[in-house]
Amino acid sequence: MSNVIKQAVSALNDKVSGAGFEGSAKFFIEGEGSVVVDANGVRASDDEAEVTLIATANVFQDIMAGDLDPTSAFMSGKLRIEGDMGTAMRLSGIL
Predict the structure, then answer these.
(1) How far apart are CA 65 and CA 51, in angstroms?
(2) Quick one: which H or E segment has residue 64?
(3) What are the tens digits of pLDDT across the range 41-95?
(4) Domain 3-92 fold
(5) What are phi and psi of 52, to 5 degrees?
(6) Domain extents in the chain
């Protein structure tokens, strides 16, 4: 597992812990791998999910740091979303 994925798992654990996120989301970090958030927690995985968010490592790190709003990233084309937009919107409220 790459350091980027390890950092992503840690950052997402901090963000979603106790947030009550219901659903499943996969973060595909280009050139690194995937992280899944669901009822079982946060883990490095390529499991199926309701929504997949696709971005470069830099964009993902900016979102996790609070330097880039997920909605702005999507609107500017830095973040692609495949799947259920409702799940993505619920998740953006946590990030």
Answers:
(1) 21
(2) helix 57-65
(3) 899 999 999 999 999 999 999 998 999 999 999 999 999 999 999 999 888 888 7
(4) Nonspecific Lipid-transfer Protein; Chain A (3.30.1050)
(5) -120, 125
(6) 3-92
Structure tokens at 88: 């993505």
What's the alpha-carbon Rg for the chain, to the nearest Å? 12
Which has the closest alpha carbon to 93: 36, 23, 3, 43? 23
pLDDT score of 17 more than 80: no
Judge contact between 51 and 25, C-beta under 8 A.
yes
d(C-alpha 63, C-alpha 57), whole Å: 10
Residue 15 contacts residue 95 (beta carbons within 8 Å)? yes
